[in-house]
Amino acid sequence: MLYLEKRKDVCEVARMMFDRFLTNAAGGNISVKMSDSRFIMTPSLMSQQKFCRLKPEEILVVDSNGNIIEGDGKLTREFNMHMAAYDAMPDAGAVIHAHPKESMVFASLGIEMPHMCEATRKLGEIRTLEFAPATSKELADRVNSYLRSRAGDIPVATLLCEHGIVVIDKTLRKAYDMLERIEYNAYVNIQAKLFELTGTVKHTNHASSLSYNLEE
Q1: Mean pLDDT, 10 residues at a time, over the chain (216 residues)?
Q2: Model-level pTM?
Q3: Using CA atoms, how far apart are residues 101 and 183, in angstroms rounded to an integer?
Q4: Contact assessment for residue 126 and residue 153, using Cβ atoms and an 8 Å cutoff
Q5: What's the CATH number of domain 4-197, 1.10.1740.10, 1.20.210.10, 3.40.50.2300, 3.40.225.10?
Q6: pLDDT at site 97
Q7: Burial 112-142 (b: 16+ CB within 10 A, else e)
Q8: Domain ranges, ordered by start, for the chain
Q9: What does DSSP assign to residue 33?
């Protein structure tokens, strides 16, 4: 089996995403770049039908045109969005698309997510792109255009209006790490707003007065 260990890792990350409410039965997908012309990718309906309980043989090996080289299952309908991300960011090693529970609040409202946690500041902005239908060429083009504007930035993440999130990093584990950081940041944002609304405390933004560690 091609790329067995890497495919096992994709299975593990997919399971973690589902179990930790980082995606839901409505979808989500993962891809890892193995070379300029080969990728491994989760199959269509990995969440709805399998609840992200995948076997290595169900992780597809595909080329950049979407031809399946090895693996049991159908190509995800978000294939074009993944390829759009790799096209825009040649240094990208992995792409995670997910529907994280807390971050979906910001995506559905169509607003930028502020940084409340130091752990996400290396991303710069976490904005929400203008709406485009899921799985559409329009969405892939919108993601590609935005990522080209951030071409020198890895990791990078962007919210998809009413849809979810895309996280790009050099490795799958790094992309997953950033997905969790963003989700915690979303949770803290929402809870902090409740404190502000009840008059308990007003948040102080330390970004202008402190030096943050933006390394690993």
Answers
A1: 97 98 96 97 93 97 98 96 97 98 98 96 96 96 97 94 98 98 98 88 61 58
A2: 0.93
A3: 8
A4: no
A5: 3.40.225.10
A6: 98
A7: ebbbbeebbebbeebebbeebebbeeebbeb
A8: 4-197
A9: E
